[in-house]
Design brief:
The chain has 725 residues and is α/β, with parallel strands linked by helices. The protein contains 30 helices and 18 strands. The strands form four sheets. The protein has a six-stranded mixed beta sheet with strand order 11-10-12-16-17-18, with helices on both faces. A five-stranded mixed beta sheet has the order 1-3-2-4-9, with helices on both faces. The longest helix has 27 residues.
Length: 725
Amino acid sequence: MKHISFLLILFLSLLFISCGKEQNKGFAIVIDSTSYRKAQKEVEAYANAIEQEGLKTYLIIDQWQHPDSIKNRLLNLYTKDKFPIEGAVFIGAIPVPMLRDAQHLSTAFKMDQNRYKWSRSSIPSDRFYDDFDLQFSYLKQDTTHSLYHYYSLNPESPQELTVDIYTARIKPKEGKDKYDKLKAYLSKVVAYKQAPRLAQQVLFFTGHGYNSEAPRAYMDEKIAISQQFSHLEGQKNWLEYINFSFDTHIKFRLMSELKRNNLDIALLHHHGGTKAQYLNGMPETSAVKGSIENIKYYLRSKLSKAGTSKEKQKLIIERYQKYYGVPKDWFEGTFDTNQIRKDSIFNANLDIYVEDMKGYTPNAKFIMLDACFTGSFHQDTYLAGEYIFSTGNTIVAQANSVNVFQDKWPDEMVGLIGLGLRVGHWNKMTCTLETHLLGDPTFAFQSPNNTLDINHILIEYQNDLTFWKNQLNSEYADIQALALRMLFDIEGSNSSSLLLEKFETSPFFTVRAEAFKLLSFCRDANFVTAINLGVNDSYELIQRLSALYLLRSGDESHIPFLIEALLRNNLSKRVNYNLRNAISAYSQQSLTNELEKQIDNKEYLLNKEDKRKSLQKTIDYNTEKAAKYVDEILATPQDVKNAYFNLRAFRNITVHSHLDKLISYTDTVKNKKLKLAATEMLGWFKYSSKRNQIIDFCESSLQKEEKQNIKSELTRTLNRIKIKP
């Protein structure tokens, strides 16, 4: 169905006096008609403040409430000869694209679209609006949530993100005061723009269970941040760190820090939900009394699930007494009103909930919520919104609309924000399908260098090869990283040798990490080399990412580096976890042979035989488990349910040593559900050293396949696997 756009466009340059910086780019403000009517004065003041910063503003009042209409208007403004937009903000009740068949563009979301309802198994994402290359087919509008519009990513579409403009959401939670909150927020933004400040204070936090709680990860992040904000280095303290283990209830320390008037940037890494930041687990203790109290709390929580049924209570008590050997009196207090209240308060204080935000005034200007679901802007209430719509000084937050992968690089080029880059530009370069800005995307700190206008050079010298090559010698690490990104955008895979050189030689963590990331886009021999080198990099994050790509690549040259790393004494806990997962990608015999080849030369191992047996056991377990999954898929008669489960498991564990069998199976399997699942599974072998086999299979199958849904999935897989020219 073709949707006709009915949008009122007001060119604010006609309404406001354009002054301040010279204008050469534009910015779109998309707002629903009710929000505009309720907050017209504040919206116009916001637009005027943006114009003062050198952006021509366009006001789009959405009368049609359909994503296609808005996207078409944004595309028209992006392709204008004069004042093309560089970004947009969506204020109020703007339609939410709910994307399907695009999970590979997210970091972690892999919910079964066939099993769960659409509102849960689709990804709310504004990449629909800001990546104009992506092509979608409209499916339907949700019957309960009228703002939800479902789309499928077309098989013929590009299958990777190349975001064209930056975007953000300004959406207060539903309630009687939502328009008052909107007006207050816009007034807060305008006030900041009249007196922008330098970024001089940074905080980072790590929560319970984040990155396997590896101390090396925290240590190296501090070094990386120090390099990214090197202009702040000196006698005065500017970087604070909080770990969940500092307090039993860390929320009070963290919330107190976030209230500091002089705090500018807060980078918060933890687990999360739509309405919660999960910070602490149960307190770890070596004291006998503390351990007993933890066990009692655990037992009460289990027994409480029995409710008032005496029979169920008896069964639960007997089960845990038998399993753990605990005395019956440790269950006491489960149904005592005072104990229930104490337990409830204790549990609530482990985390931050939206209820904690009432009356709270966070003052960190920019907050990164590196957590699952805290940016679920499609919900009536979402935690990130509580920060920006508070009466504190927080202007913008970055958060995720669904779950997010722990082993991504959340701090990528964050130092550019400290140098005055608009947060929208930063998010545009680092976002995935689920990552969004909540708040004003034109927000920027004052530049610490009067000669550096990073927003200007990013636009003015966008395609200037010479300029960006010169920036490889910048005094700022993240300017060097940005230069690598811009050179890659200009030259593509032709920049591969330069990227490998910088990866091998740069003293800066962030430059090496950016080079590594860009090499992953090349997927060439230089990337294979970088993976092998990266396993022993001095930056824990690069070690961790390299371990991930040992699994994703499957190149035989990785095996010696994998075994060598697993024999080291001082692996980060998270790196070790990823390395052990990578074992599944390779043949059991090849790994065993390499272990036998290396272990006698490891003079530092005190008990080589114990180490050999332990690692051999891990090799056997992981490779045999992968082989078992493959055998169950190939088994006759076929267990469809089990085969389907195993095929979906190989989206996470790419078993390259079994790829020939999996391709043959995909070619011959008759069951339609399994054939579709197998074809989709092959698309997750994007980085495989054997991906040309998948390309050949897809191209050959497309010539003979008659079923349209299978042809579509073959096309999508082919476009995922092929390297973009």
